[in-house]
Amino acid sequence: MKFRIFALLMAAALLLTALVSVSVLPAAAEAVEMTPMHGEQFRPDGVTFGRVSFIVPGGTQGLTKDAWDGNIDHNTDLILLSYVKDGELYVNKTIRQIKEHLGDLALVRTCYTYDDQPDGTLRANLVFHMDDHSKLGPEDIVAVTVKAGFVWCAGSPAGISGELSHLILDRDVSFLTSGEAGITGVQTGNMGSEGTSLHVRFDRKDSESLKAISAVDLCPSAIPGKTLGDLVTIGGETVTELVKKGNVARFNFYGNTLIFHVDDPDYLAKIKNEHLEFVVLPGFRWMNWHQDDWGNWAGTNRDTYTPVEGTLVTQPISFYLNEKAEVCVKSEGLQIVDGYKDTYFVGERIDMTTLLIRMSQGGEPMHILEEMVSYDFSKAGTATVTVTVKDMTATYTVTVVENPNTEAPTEAPTEPPTEAPTEPPTEAPTETPTDPVTEAPAVDTTASETTAEIVGCPPEKKGCGATVMTLSAVILIAASAVALKKKED
User: Fold this and answer.
1) Can you tell me whether residue 132 is helix, strand or coil?
2) Residue 222: how many other CB atoms lie within 10 Å
3) How far apart are CA 47 and CA 37, in angstroms?
4) Cβ 186 vs Cβ 327: under 8 Å
5) How many other C-beta atoms lie within 10 A of the C-beta of residue 250?
6) Residue whose C-alpha is closest to residue 52's, from 164, 177, 181
7) Which residues contact 297 (CB under 8 A, 6 or more apart)?
8) 50 touches 136 (CB < 8 A)
9) What separation, in Å, do the N-terminal and C-terminal C-alpha atoms of the chain show?
10) Nearest to residue 262, comparing CAs of 327, 198, 213, 311?
11) Burial 465-475 (b: 16+ CB within 10 A, else e)
């Protein structure tokens, strides 16, 4: 009998040791999907900051309100902003680079916060605080890219207390935060009548008469340190390189037409025969000068070049010549990326998490502002969704169906339901213990709730069940041992 008591006590001790291990070791958090969204303005009404947002499931652990990263110590190189300052486009600059360029007050901190969504999910907001808008304002930012590896942070206005390892982006995400896209597509074009120039007409509605600029390898672009010639490639070589080789002579800007003058007949034949690809890169823009520059001397007067408003290229534009020397556009302007939600209930709001656009062929998929989208889901049938970015428009169709949850409820039956006959409860047979000495004492039915309070884990929390059952087993074994001891005495 003493051996049996000793064995029970040892079992209780072992289970208690296991319980301590379970309660001390934290459970590994499961990865949480961060769905980028931009259903609201980048600059919310009435505030002076900008933000991009992600949808996460309701109940996601670890999110905190207003966690300020004042020193930009987290995700330093994984948050990239593109912005226009003094007419120049700065592409994919880190927050630290922005502070170095414009000063600390241009972007004083990032903030990690969240709020509840009507559907029970949570919206995690990455907020950019720009305290001196003379240096940088929300309206200056045209795009935000958050790189793969970005991890969400937690804390308070006092600072960041930690990173949430279960909230990590596994891909790059880009947000278009402004409708000021500039020129984004080629209309048409062909070889000039003399056969030594390539005429490409771009999407510009004005017809301002601009001047010829031959010093494309010297004329400044919207990218600091880059010339216009650096931002156009033909067959993978920059025009700056081709000018030095004598293959390309100059650009001409006339209204919406960009003219490439190719004076080398052998190179011109190569362009046509090999269908070399032309790429106009972000930062390229229309330029004007006070007179036509047909030579290469105007490059010494670069300060007199004037950028033309509304002509900034923000996404790559690609085209080539076909067999008939006609411009074939590889960039078709605004495009809707496949994968958007295509079925809605009547009255439902559009799902901005699945609506992505490209500004050009091969461009980065980007999330956009809901203010750029128009639709009418007020009745069942086929509906057209229209996306407008600056002067460009793209459409797609979706199916709208009646919501079954809004149908009128069926009337209840007038006759009361027939109650099933109740049978008298069958008494469970009383089992006679084979060994009266091992009979366990009665156990309080509130043990599991009490146990949950002891380990600091509410019963509804995932993972608590095993801990509660383990501690209950320890209590039961210990009680059995005590009963055995009393019986022996």
Assistant:
1) coil
2) 24
3) 19
4) yes
5) 25
6) 177
7) 215
8) no
9) 11
10) 198
11) eebbebbbbbb
Cα separation, 348 vs 350, in Å, equals 6
Q: Which residue has the tokens 């010494």?
A: 300
Residue 478 phi, psi (nearest 5)? -65, -40
Residues 6+ apart with CB under 8 A from 237: none
Residue with the two structure tokens 């890169």: 281
Both tokens assigned to 61:
């652990």
- Which residues does residue 94 pair with via DSSP β-bridges, in sequence order? 80
Residues in a beta bridge with 199: 190, 259
Token representation of residue 398 = 């979706």
If you ran DSSP here, which 8-state letter would residue 478 be given?
H
Let me know: does 69 contact 153? Beta carbons within 8 Å: yes
Q: Is 31 helix (H, G, I), strand (E, B) or coil?
A: coil
Calculate ∠ Cα 466-471-477, nearest 5°: 125
What is the full per-residue pLDDT of the chain (489 aa) written as tens digits?
555 555 555 555 544 444 443 333 334 457 888 988 876 778 887 788 999 999 999 989 999 999 999 988 999 899 999 888 877 788 889 988 998 899 888 888 999 999 998 889 999 999 999 888 889 988 889 889 999 999 999 999 999 999 999 999 988 888 888 766 566 667 666 666 556 777 887 776 555 666 666 677 777 888 878 888 999 999 999 999 998 888 888 777 877 788 888 878 888 888 888 888 888 888 888 887 766 655 554 445 555 677 777 788 877 888 887 777 777 776 566 788 888 999 999 999 998 888 988 876 666 788 888 888 999 999 999 999 999 886 678 899 999 999 887 655 455 445 554 454 445 544 444 443 334 333 433 434 444 333 333 333 443 444 444 444 444 444 444 455 545 555 555
**Which of 99, 102, 103 is closest to 72 using CA atoms?**
99
Quote the tokens at residue 421.
Answer: 């006959």
Is there a contact between 143 and 174 (Cβ–Cβ < 8 Å)? yes
Q: By 3-state DSSP, what share of the chain in percent is helix, strand and coil, each rounded to 5?
A: 20, 30, 45
Query: Which residues, 6+ apart, have CB-to-CB distance to 303 below 8 Å?
Result: none
Q: Name the one residue in this structure whose structure tokens are 């496949």.
A: 338
Question: How far apart (Å, rounded) are the C-alpha atoms in residues 111 and 131?
Answer: 13
Classified as helix, coil or strand, 203 is coil
Which tokens in the block code for residue 331? Answer: 């960039």
On whether the CB atoms of residues 383 and 395 are closer than 8 A, the answer is: no
